[in-house]
Structure formats: C-alpha cells, structure tokens
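thread from #wetlab-drylab

HS: before we spend reagent money on co-crystallization trials with adenosine-5'-triphosphate, can we at least see a predicted complex? here's what I'd submit
DV: go for it
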Amino acid sequence: MPESILQVRNLTVHFYTYAGIVRAIEKVSFDVYKGETFALVGETGCGKSVTSRALTQLIESPGRIVEGEVLYYRDEGPVDLLKLDEEQIREIRGNEIAYIFQDPHASLDPLYTVGYQIAEAMEVHGKVKSIKEGIKKAVDILRAVLIPDSERRVKNYPHELSGGMKQRVVIGIGIANNPKILIADEPTTALDVTVQAQILDLINQLKEKYKATVILITHNLGVVAETADRVAVMYAGKIVEIGSVEQIFKNPLHPYTKGLLKAVPNPMTKIERLEAIPGTVPNLITPPSGCRFHPRCPFAMDICKQKIPELKEIEDGHFVACHLY
Ligand SMILES: Nc1ncnc2c1ncn2[C@@H]1O[C@H](COP(=O)(O)OP(=O)(O)OP(=O)(O)O)[C@@H](O)[C@H]1O
Ligand SMILES: [Mg+2]
C-alpha cells in the first residue's frame, strides 16, 4: 500500500458573492501519496486552483471553506490543516507545503532583489538567522534552479531577468525551505513552449533531489502523461475520476474524461472548450442537480439528474463518480 502524505475529505469551498453563492468545489476527496506527482486536470473554472489553495486555508474573502478535512501526515503524526489557526498554518505554508504560482510577475516583488526575496522566505521560517545569511544561501538556490552566474544574479531585481528566469526564481522561493509538498499551479502557462519544457524538467529534478511530493495543476495533458504518477480529473467543482496516468489515458471511464482526452489533439493548448463535448461548464451558483455533468453527457440517464454519483473504485486504485458504473 502506498503511504499517504495528504488525505483530503469532503473539501467544500463557497464564495459568497452579490450574484449568489458560488459552489466552487463540493465534497472533494482524494489522497496524495508520499513522493508522487499528483496531477489535477480539468477545464478552466472547474476548481483546480481553489482546491489547491484550500489545502492550506489560502482562500480569501468572499470565499470560505465550509466543510472538509485535510489530513497532513507529518513525521510526528497526522494534523488536520483546516483546524489550524492562522499562525499555525503560516508555519507550514511556504515551508513544509510550498506553492509555485503561474504568474512570476505577481509572485515577485519588483522592489526587492531576487536574493532578498529568497532570503526572506527562509528567514520568516527561521531557516536562516539573518537576511544576510539567507542571501548567501540564495546563491546556491539560484544554482539549484539552474540560473547561470548566480553570484551576480542574486543581486538582480526581477525586471532584470527574463520570464523563464523569473519563474526559476519563483521555483527557488518554493524550494528554499525544502518543502515536503510542492504545489505547482500551472507553473509554466506564462512561458513559451521551450522554456515550459525546461521548467517542468527542473521541477522533476528538484522533486527527486529533495524527495518532495508534487501536486501539479495543469491543463496540459501532454505534461500530465510525461510527468505525473496519478491524475484527478475535475469537472464543475467535483472530482469525477482518479487513477494512475496509465489507467486514465488507456482506460478512461468517465464520459467527461473520455471527452477531455478526445478534445485535445494538441496537448499544449489550454482546455477552454471541448469540441467533443457540446456545451460549457455550468454556472456554479446554480449547478445542475445530481451529476453536474449530466446536461452535457451523451449517456445521461434519469438517475443522473437526481443523484450525485459517489466516487467508486472500479479497478485497483481507479475511481470514478458516474452512474454508468
Ligand atoms: N474570488 C472569487 N470569487 C468568486 N468566485 C470565485 C473566486 N475565485 C474562484 N471563484 C470561482 O470558483 C470556481 C473555480 O475556480 P478555479 O480558479 O479554482 O478554477 P481553475 O480550475 O483553477 O481554472 P483555470 O484553469 O482557469 O485556472 C470558478 O467558478 C470561479 O469562478
Ligand atoms: Mg486555476
């Protein structure tokens, strides 16, 4: 049996907007195993970012985590991350569990050198005693993320670096404290294709080097096939299928997963619209009853409108939430 590092149960996040309550994710459950790369995929707006952010309570107003449990297995034993107070979760976030976000411009502060920003990430978690000591270590981190001439680069401001280099710095901040779990939310979307490949390669190398677990959010199924061990497919705020990469790609069960795989002739394109599945992702203020996919599903039956399908294990480690099974 693989050992879980995260057990997410019934995670539910709502956004209380003027237009109504956006049911962004609803009773999302999955396990992440120690040392694996776990991919979250699905169309735009299906809840991938909200899910990953909610793991460490990174949901801002008007959003609220209304239900759920996120058991994080530390060496000392499991802790429910959703039960920690702000100070306790801050100790873990950016430290044991770190994020790499999509947009390096938003992740870096233009007013500080990259060395300072890496140093600060270490200092707030007590990994170095001073910014000065942190900047010395930042040189090694820049080297680890394959930025050439790191002694000089450490003194650069973000605007002095290319987009690809900035994203390497963001990854450097992510790994600065040697996290157990690295959550990469579309880490390469803002970059051009050749740089994308290099950055993914780098994340993989760092994962091996630091023995980290990676949660990779991407709309790029080519990347999933190449780098992930297991995949969770999300639709309209629910997980519809989970399995190994091989199970998902060779034997997709959910009609949505099948459509997703058919719809992406070019795996590098963003999943905005699925030609193979008519219709669009529903409004999450009034999501469809029963299975949220039923209005678009070619196999929909009466029960699909009435009953929310539970995730069921169909073959070893391969789960699907669909009334066909
Ligand atoms: N601050 C917010 N206020 C209201 N609704 C929000 C907010 N943030 C997210 N949502 C809603 O939550 C749902 C899930 O959004 P999320 O950003 O997780 O999607 P995603 O799968 O990451 O999409 P993408 O591929 O475009 O990044 C969407 O319906 C979105 O509109
Ligand atoms: Mg997102």
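DV: Residues 1-88+212-325 form a domain with the Rossmann fold fold (CATH 3.40.50.300).
HS: ok that's useful, forwarding to the group
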